[in-house]
Design brief:
This protein is of the alpha/beta class. The protein contains 16 helices and 18 strands. Helix 9 packs parallel to helix 10 and helix 12 packs antiparallel against helix 13.
């Protein structure tokens, strides 16, 4: 009897065969023991011939369960994803040694566009997850007794101390393979059951994105360009971790980088190396902090300074001082909105009159997942979709929902887009800051600012994303 439903396969079963084997024979595992293995296969293949070859290949008895061709194909795409178009897959396959397994994991993660690899251990098992479009997806299971060997392999390549298992460590790996060359930032963290490792994949082209590719509207881009082309002042970007702040800063520095400017950055960590820009790695353990680096920067005849983050009053004061002495300063700050940046700095003890005189622009940003264009479908809009009391800016008959297909690896989403909230500090806004009256209602009435919730609604109304992605902006 043909199987027609979507196949659900445990991670351990997925690992029982390689991606090449699965695609070559058109099979996905259903059950597996040392003596017997069961596979789903398409009703369009010669089952008897495939069964014979598999018994020789695996050295055990094989049973095949016939399924619809589309069902098997969907399972292959979901559980054995191929590299994205334009990227070659690594030819190395898992042979039982971590010399081969680690490059295979890295190549697969890079091929499908993952930003991070999480390697973590629990009481009885260990797993490897990829972060794709901001969400974690489990890809592998590793036996607990083999986990330390995998972690040691990573630590050796990242020049970390394999004997030190009690303290966190940070390092880098330069990966070179068939898929290309790129840096990997490695962080190890001691947990109750062992060390957790996170590997951030740093695409060499990641720091070469131009501003017009980031998601600014035409008006927002003009506003931002006006602020960053002033000879002095501060431009602040706010948002949570993973909201794309660093990418925006690098794109900005790329635009401003020329032979006539001396650009200095202090970062934690340096994610991308930029030719022509002097980049400094933060090292707080030896006293190289944001504030101490900035103090030294002022003696280095800079034109433009980039601070990775304003974390305390001392750093904020140094940034203000740099702006007052004729420098253009860029930095990030963790607040929920562009307006919240002013309040945060005021809370740190910075006088409002100094903020009004030095800040060129404050901006908040977020990344919103885009629905896969190949599989999203429309549903009728109902009141239950939105938070209680939420007033719809416009009437909508339908909205788009994620479905999942082979193009998006059955996530329903493909890629992300940044949305922005910009507040340029003009004379009127500076007056509001000096008087400490930067309430949202005042700004809405006087500046007609497009807030994050407005940008999120536009994406939802245009069918670019789902209600699940934009719901937090409406609360």
């Amino acid at each position: 009897m043909d199987v027609k439903q979507n196949l659900q396969i445990e991670t351990e079963l997925v690992q029982s065969i390689s991606a090449d084997q699965a695609w070559h024979y058109g099979i996905v595992p259903a059950e597996a023991t040392n003596e017997h293995m069961v596979f789903y296969c398409s009703n369009k293949i010669d089952a008897a011939e495939v069964q014979t070859e598999l018994e020789i290949l695996f050295g055990c008895t094989i049973s095949l369960q016939i399924a619809e061709e589309e069902t098997v194909k969907n399972a292959l795409v979901r559980y054995y994803p191929k590299a994205s178009k334009g990227k070659k897959s690594s030819t190395k396959q898992f042979t039982g040694t971590y010399d081969d397994f680690l490059p295979k994991v890295i190549s697969e993660a890079y091929g499908i566009g993952a930003s991070d690899i999480h390697i973590e251990i629990y009481e009885e098992t260990a797993r490897i997850r990829f972060r794709v479009d901001g969400k974690l997806v489990e890809r592998y299971r590793v036996a607990s007794e083999e986990y330390p060997a995998l972690v040691n392999k990573i630590k050796i390549q990242a020049n970390l101390d394999i004997a030190e298992k009690r303290l966190p460590q940070d390092g880098r790996i330069f990966f070179k393979g068939n898929i290309g060359e790129f840096d990997i930032r490695v962080s190890s963290l001691p947990t109750m059951n062992g060390e957790k490792v996170v590997m951030r994949l740093l695409n060499k082209d990641g720091g070469k994105v131009s501003l017009d590719q980031l998601g600014f509207s035409d008006i927002q881009l003009k506003t931002y360009l006006k602020a960053i082309k002033r000879p002095n002042g501060i431009v602040l970007i706010s948002g949570p971790t993973g909201s794309g702040k660093t990418t925006t800063l690098y794109a900005t520095l790329q635009l401003l980088n020329d032979n006539e400017s001396n650009i200095l950055t202090i970062e934690d960590p340096i994610e991308y190396t930029l030719e022509g820009i002097n980049q400094v790695q933060l090292k707080e353990d030896i006293g190289l902090t944001f504030s101490s680096a900035l103090r030294t920067f002022l003696r280095q005849d800079p034109d433009i300074i980039m601070l990775g983050e304003i974390r305390d009053k001392e750093t904020a004061q140094m940034a203000i001082r740099a702006a007052l002495t004729g420098h253009l300063v860029f930095s990030t700050i963790h607040t929920n909105s562009a307006l919240g940046t002013i309040s945060r700095l005021t809370d740190m003890g910075i006088p409002p009159y100094l903020l009004a005189g030095t800040i060129n622009l404050t901006m908040a940003q977020r990344l919103v997942r885009l629905l896969c264009p190949h599989c999203n479908s429309e549903n009728k809009v109902t009141d239950s979709l939105f938070p209680p009391g939420f007033a719809l800016p416009q009437n909508l008959e339908s909205h788009s929902i994620p479905v999942g297909c082979e193009h998006c690896y059955y996530t329903g989403y493909s890629g992300r887009k940044a949305i922005y909230e910009l507040i340029p500090i003009d004379d009127e806004m500076a007056s509001i800051i000096r008087e400490n009256k930067q309430e949202q209602t005042t700004l809405e009435n006087s500046h007609k600012i497009k807030f994050l919730k407005d940008a999120a609604w536009e994406m939802f109304a245009q069918g670019l994303t789902s209600i699940e992605e934009v719901y937090p902006f409406f609360i």
